[in-house]
Amino acid sequence: MSAFRPTPYSGPPPSQAPPVQSVSDHFPSTRPVASSAAPAQGYAALCKVVLSRRTRNNLMLTAAATYVALLVAVFDPRKLPGSLLNFLPVLLFAPIAFLGTLPLFVLRKQRVTTARPPLPTRFAQLAQLNDHSSAQIFFTHLAGAALFHAAYVWCSGYASKDPQLGLFFFHEGRDAWQLNERRVLLGLLHCFVAAFATVQYVLEDRSQVHFEEDISLTIPARLAAKAKVRLRAAVRSTGLAVAFFWSAYVVTRRPVLRFVLVNFAGSWARPHLYSMMRHNGAYSVTLAARALSSSLLHFLAWEAAHVCFEVYATQPMSVSQFSPNPNQCLLSGLRSSEPYYQVDLSRPATRRRGHSLTGSLHSLQQFAYLELAILTLTDSTRRQAIFKDVKPGSSIRGAWSEISRECLLVIGTELQRAKGRGKSPCELVLSSSSNRRAHSDPIRRAASSAGPYPSPVSQTMEQQSSANRVPVKTGNVFVPTKSGLFDKLATAAVSSAPSPAAQKVTSAVSSAVASTQSAISARVPSILQSGGASSSSGPNGSQAPAAPAMHPEDVPQVLGVEQRLATWVPAARRAKVFAVVPEYKVGSCVPRRRETVCAIQALANLTCASLHEDPYGVAQRDIPKILEAFVRYLAVLEVLQGELGALAEKHGREEGSEVGQRWRGLVEKEVGGVQEGPSLSLLPFGVLATGAPIVKSAETDPSSTTALRQGAKAILTEFAPYLSEFRTYLLCTVRPPSPLGLTDQCFGWRAGFPTAIAAQLQVLVDWGG
């Protein structure tokens, strides 16, 4: 039984028809002049207030974690039980250690971003160390290491009653002042720890913060979960850093010391190095233990600062309710491009080579979309306020129109990006037009092959001309952009009845369309036809099929100097350094996964709730548009997931099962994440007849359908009695038995779902996708 057949609910009898009344009739024609209200506070300003308050909590938690790390670092098992009572000495020097985390906190605020394009290869990640911004990261860690070093040696010397540990020189008997090797070794170690942390910061891209998949988690739960992971990472980093440094120190200590004594140190300096020549501190077990504990202090304090910053910077917030106009405040957040903490992230210091960052990828928009998804799920009062926010007789649209428009814009942009396999629509147009110009112009092709260094004059002229140049459009420009009558008839014939008669109708319609297009093209002078159109046309004037979407393998992989270096590296080593990482191919296809999922959730929740909470019916007119967007995006994601899955199987066969499993996990997380969405304690879609959300645990429904299917199925289930109002059919008075089934008495189409979309929606109704 078709879900789009006429039902008793599709059209009420004329006697029972509700009165047709404009929305403006509900309001009085004359209103008293209201006093000028204060302008609604912007969403970005409210977010900045919340983030500033979170900064205070962030610093307090970081100070507490630094105190605990210093307490662990100065613990001496030889001084038991007195080592258990080091609270007061640690409290005295803990502020100095806390100051060591402030440079890192300032660095994170200056360089924070939420969605940075991944780099293609491991070599590209290592090449970031050659950037001038890496020097800033190193000096930031070096400043923190200097403060940690001072706090540790002074606190440890005070607690263990060993004042020589905190001095660079010490005096023994009648000898001259001797250089303290313990202090020198710890200083060199902590400089190496700062360099080690810099490499970790760059390779792991610590400037980027990630939103949690489960957006219902509280701040304490997120802190506990991240602390467990980062604690193990801190211990592992401590072991690696100390092992590398200690091995190098043992090997190079004697040659370096001899070289310094012979070539640089004169008679005035040799007496001060007598202790280092007589005793080798590299074999001291006590010094090795102090090296481990002091390095652990560095990594624990830095990891605590990272954890606190990432949790407080990505925790969802609900701030629009504090504005005089919550709907307009939320709408301003959906359109906002304000960055975090009043920092301009578009400056060159925060860019990667070869990647241009847009403001929408690291702005406060994500908080607005998260808040929209949560409030449309849990707050019926806010949903009703969105539906009731209409402006009759005004050019300004209501809240529902604006919010649905912003959500559909996000879905449409990401749909085109998924079609282009990671490229935005603007990048696709520019790249295609530049490729066509390069291949079609023999002069430019010859100039490009002459040498890699064009003249400055030609470069300037090319920039000035390309700024005002309109991209060339290939193909027949007279083909209508919207599907016409012949296209709809052909689609209906193919999808409805695959009989011989239907095939005849299809072939007749196709031949009619082809002949019409060839006739139109024949009237156009050849000089006005583009090269793509003339080359793609066959001998009979038929147009060649359109080019398929870009395959994930076609994404640019190794560029520039990497391409030249890769030819000199053996194949066994090339895979680990120059092979394209899965995050680049998979993550670039859905960079705004979080906002897209939240937009899908918000549209589905509002549409389902509109049946019982929308007094004016402002949302029902957009149901066909929303369902069509869901179905089209779902089809594109299914094709993309299939291609990436095949790519994962290929890498699994060539490089091993672990690599294939890594690829499959990334595909499920990134592409499947758009389909499944973040987990919530409440089912993201579906509203009961009373308007209350369906409470359902994620653990009780392990085989939950995808988010797009779930949203479309929820809307179709909620509006099942009224689906016939959206069906598409041809209005004809007589249907004669002709091959095309067309006469002059067919006078129009009724607006609704396209036939292909209606067929996919019918599958969702019958089988759930």
UniProtKB/TrEMBL annotation:
InterPro entries, per database record: Nucleoporin_prot_Ndc1/Nup
GO-annotated molecular function: protein-macromolecule adaptor activity
Biased composition (Polar residues): 456-468
Tagged with keyword Transport: yes
Cellular component, GO annotation: nuclear membrane; nuclear pore transmembrane ring; spindle pole body
Compositional bias ranges of the Low complexity kind: 530-549
Transmembrane region(s): 58-75, 87-107, 184-203
Region (Disordered): 1-34, 428-473, 529-551
Domain of life: Eukaryota
Keyword Cell inner membrane applies: no
Localization terms from the record: Nucleus membrane; Nucleus, Nuclear pore complex
Main localization (coarse): nucleus
Pfam families: Ndc1_Nup
GO biological process: mRNA transport; nuclear pore organization; protein transport; spindle pole body localization
Membrane topology: Multi-pass membrane protein
Keyword list, A-Z: Membrane, mRNA transport, Nuclear pore complex, Nucleus, Protein transport, Translocation, Transmembrane, Transmembrane helix, Transport
Family membership noted in the UniProt record: Belongs to the NDC1 family.
Protein name as annotated: SPOSA6832_01337-mRNA-1:cds
